[in-house]
Amino acid sequence: MEIILQKDHPELGTAGKKLTVKDGYARNYLIPYGIALQADKSALKAINEREKVERMRLTKEKRHAEKLAQQMVKVSLTAKMPTSEEDKIFGSVTTQDIVDMLAEKGIQVDRRKIHLDEPLKALGVYQVPVKLHPEVTVKVKVFVIKAD
Questions:
Q1: Which residues contact 47 (CB under 8 A, 6 or more apart)?
Q2: Residue 76 pairs with which residues in a beta bridge?
């Protein structure tokens, strides 16, 4: 029986894939559990429409990420941290601190999109990568300076 996967399946493949399986497997497992549809004209049409909507959604998300990246390139952030006499900072600058500094500039970003190998624990200038979309990554300049 020819089927079209509606959901990703570890053994069969990704959603939208058309393949042939045994009739019993399709009728007793894949179709009742909503994993697949029988491949007929209406199912093919529905899958094509769903893919079209998904592509439009992904394009819109990418455009939004690119627009946000253009804003973020112009931004530089300054973190004032208390230091010891040897210029070692107390504490560190974390992804949440960077999110808060971006929010002060009017840019909303999820902290999981900021990729720090480890928190910033020394004075200096850092280029912090922010992955806004699988295809859009921007680097934000973060200055870690002494607090007055």
A1: 4, 16, 37
A2: 141
CATH number of the domain bearing residue 140: 3.10.430.100
Question: CA 135 → CA 20, 31, 55, 118, distances in Å?
Answer: 33, 34, 14, 23
Q: Are residues 54 and 105 in the same domain?
A: no
Q: What is the C-alpha to C-alpha distance for residues 117 and 111, in angstroms, rounded to an integer?
A: 13
Segment 59-80, tens digit of pLDDT: 999 999 999 999 999 999 999 9
Are residues 104 and 135 part of one domain?
A: yes
Number of domains in the chain: 2
Rounded to the nearest 10°, the torsion over CA 34, 38, 41, 46 is: 10
Q: What is the pTM of this model?
A: 0.69
